[in-house]
Amino acid sequence: MSDAREITIYEVGPRDGLQNEPDDVATPVKRELIERLVGAGIPRIELTSFMSPKWIPKLADADELSKIAPRDPGVAYAGLIANQRGYDRFLDADLPVLALVVSVSDTHNRKNLNRGTQETLDAFRPITEQAKRDGKTLRMYASTCCGCPYEGRISTAQAMGVIEQLVAMGADEVGIADSLGVGTPDQIREVVQAAKGIFPADKLALHLHDTYGRALVNLMTGYDEGIRIFDASLGGLGGCPYAPGASGNLATEDVVDLFEGMGIPTGVDLDALIDTTLWLEQDVLKRPLPSRVFRAKAAKRGQDAG
Amino acid sequence: MSDAREITIYEVGPRDGLQNEPDDVATPVKRELIERLVGAGIPRIELTSFMSPKWIPKLADADELSKIAPRDPGVAYAGLIANQRGYDRFLDADLPVLALVVSVSDTHNRKNLNRGTQETLDAFRPITEQAKRDGKTLRMYASTCCGCPYEGRISTAQAMGVIEQLVAMGADEVGIADSLGVGTPDQIREVVQAAKGIFPADKLALHLHDTYGRALVNLMTGYDEGIRIFDASLGGLGGCPYAPGASGNLATEDVVDLFEGMGIPTGVDLDALIDTTLWLEQDVLKRPLPSRVFRAKAAKRGQDAG
User: Fold this and answer.
1) A261 vs B: CB within 8 A
2) Is A154 left (phi over 0), alpha (psi -120 to 50) or beta?
3) What single string gives the DSSP state of each residue in A148-180?
4) Which of B247, B242, B82 is nearest to B150 (CA)?
5) Interface touch A217/B213, C-beta < 8 Å
6) Is A1 a residue whose pLDDT tops 50?
7) Model pLDDT, residue A241
8) pTM (two decimals)
9) Can you say how many angstroms the Cα of residue A156 is from the centroid of all Cα atoms in its chain?
10) Neighbouring C-alpha atoms within 13 Å toward the C-beta of A118
């Protein structure tokens, strides 16, 4: 039986995290990362993106990784695309969830995708129609929903203008992204309440960044408003390359520990997740990862080990 | 006119922060820090503690610092003590607010003050009587209200047992301290609601640590329950030397930016505070301070400067 309090983690580390890492991570190592995440009980993973390797060189192995990622009936993989060429590769890769991102901020969208917000939405329309025919699940993000590094504060009305179009295209899930982490709880509440007027709360997701330390207070606000799907990145890996000063994504460990501490099931084995992040930090990336829960628990393990 | 939404920062950096720094900070530099905090609009500052220099060597200059700290009619300085000898020094130092800390966890209290919780409370009683006669304001903390590194989770009933005694001693303000940062919003809500049954909400303070990234979500929960006084430490300086794995205090910048972002007045000039933390980090401590807001804003200043 499902618990109405239960939450679902949508893990973005392999895509949103690794695309921003300075060092290359070998495809078999990425496969091991995915396998470990699946083993820790993460039910949904944004595996990679099918962008031009010129733009996102760290994810140039998207086709190969998709082929070798371990398939598990309990886990849904998503692949991010930006255009028809990406969709064709995504289709070959045989992943169930198509992820699409558009910025509410026109300037941010131009920096990110080289065209305006409306132009991007218009280009997405035929792709989403095809994806529907191909039986794909549509995960569509509206990014910079709270603020933009170029345009400043984004109004809720402006964000809803974009979300309405995503819903009209047949989104199965809409991700409300505060890509800069500038949102405050009152703003998140206003955005989520407005979005609930357009789309069911249980199909909304929150994608938060911890730039100003507010990711968890914003997440809790979203939870109180009925949101149950939360994007997170193991160890707090990653960020947004086009948002100056933006720090990492909200860490998966921080989300899991908060909810489990309140008796709200996440389905994730925190110890196994910390094993994974420790391995990623020490054996792969060789740089400290920012998750507070990971850091505190890893320090405690060190102490307990003497 | 006072705004019922307005909050008050109780700055603990000079005491709770500097006592844990590896390097000595010269007394005139501490004086400059205090002066800068006052200039940034911080209305209440825990200046120092009057403990044995054998225990807290970094604050051995408490008497001298108290003499030279700039007096401002809008700022109330507090001094922390643990016994009668400390009270005598505090009295000589002529500070208006007497701060006293006791741990709800008996084991934590023994590690911290070398005696049990009840023994500490009994020893505080005659001191608080004298302080009342001396016209001092009593700021009394109950620490480890949510959990203890030795005893695990602390029950709300156990915390209330201690808080009741602090109230009976005539506390003017009671600080609810989650010294380990283990509290979750539901637990903070339960503790605050119980405390409001004993003591007025506007005389309660929250003292939170950000070990697991939950300080701001817990702070917001306390705010929603009517708490308006929040302890914080500039830059996120400090921690608890007797709580293994505990990371820094909640950062003052993170608190100010959250509330000001919601239009809730704090009375603090965030830019002036960031100037102060930048000076402390670069010219005094020469190590990076963890506040998320400070880090993001300092990075942005660097970018804007080219």
Assistant:
1) yes
2) beta
3) ETTTEEPPHHHHHHHHHHHHHTT-SEEEEEETT
4) B242
5) no
6) no
7) 43
8) 0.95
9) 21
10) 2
